[in-house]
Amino acid sequence: LKEAGFDHPPRTWDEFATMVKALTKSDGSQWGASIGGDVDLWYAMVHEWGGRVLTDDYRNVLFDKDPNVLNMVTFMNDLYKNGYIHFTTGYNYQTDFGNKKCAFVIASTASYTYIDQAVAGKFKWAQAPIPAGPKGQYTVMYGTNVVIFGQKYSAVVQRGAWDFVKWFDAPYQTARWSIDTGYLPVRKSALDLPVFKQFLASNPERKAGFDSLNFAIIQPPTKEWNQARSDIGAELQKIYLQKISPADGIKELGAKLRSYIH
C-alpha cells in the first residue's frame, strides 16, 4: 500500500475501488484483490447499501426488488469485469495474497493463521474492518456450533461432555484459543483478561475483528438458509464471471430463494 501511495487500508468501498485500481498491474501479474463469491460479504454489503435480504421474520425475500442491492452488485461486478478484483475459489485467495498477487483479501478472522502461513514472513500485513458503504458499516458474525448428542450415551459420558464444554469455553481457555487460532473468543469477558489485553497490545494487527463487534449482524437462523447460501454463492459466481448480468442474476436468485423461503 505504501508503495502505491496509500497510508491506510480502505475505510469505504469508494476508497477500496480507488485502491484496487491503483494496485492492479496492466501486465496481469498483480490485481487489487482476490475475492470469490463470498456470501457473508454479500450479506453485509446489502445492508451497507441500505438494502435488506429478508423480512424480519425471515419468511419473505426482499433483496431482488431493492435497487440498492442491484447497485451494490453492479459496483462490485464492475471491479471484477475490469480485472481489478480476481475471482477466486476455495482457499486460493490465501495463496494469491502470500505470493503478492493481490493487495487485499476478505475473509473471516479464523483465516488469519492460514494467511500468515501463506505470507511466511515475506512482508508485513494486518487485518482491517470491512469498508463502509453508502448507508453504514456492517459485518457478519458467525461461527461453528458446539452440540452434545446425548441420547445413546450414559449419564456419566453426558456429564463428562458437559464438563468439557464448560471448561473450554471458560474465559481463560477461550482467550488462549483465540490467541492461537485467530477465531474470536466465545465469551466477551475474555477480552478483560490480562493475557488477552497484553496480546492485543502487542499485536494491534489482530484487532479488526474486535473493532467490528459493534456493527456486526447475523444471518437468518433458519433451516432454509444453508440452501440459500449455496444458491447465493453460485449466482454471485455467475455474475462476477460475466455469465449473466447483475440485473438478471439478482432476478434469477430472488426467484430461486422465493421458491423455498415463504
Automatic annotation (TrEMBL):
InterPro entries: Bact_solute-bd_prot1, SBP. The keyword Signal applies. Gene3D superfamilies: Periplasmic binding protein-like II. It is found in: Periplasm. One of its GO terms (cellular component) is periplasmic space. Keywords: Signal, Transport. It comes from the Bacteria. Belongs to the bacterial solute-binding protein 1 family. PANTHER family: ARABINOSE-BINDING PROTEIN-RELATED, SN-GLYCEROL-3-PHOSPHATE-BINDING PERIPLASMIC PROTEIN UGPB. The complex is composed of two ATP-binding proteins (UgpC), two transmembrane proteins (UgpA and UgpE) and a solute-binding protein (UgpB). This is sn-glycerol-3-phosphate-binding periplasmic protein UgpB.
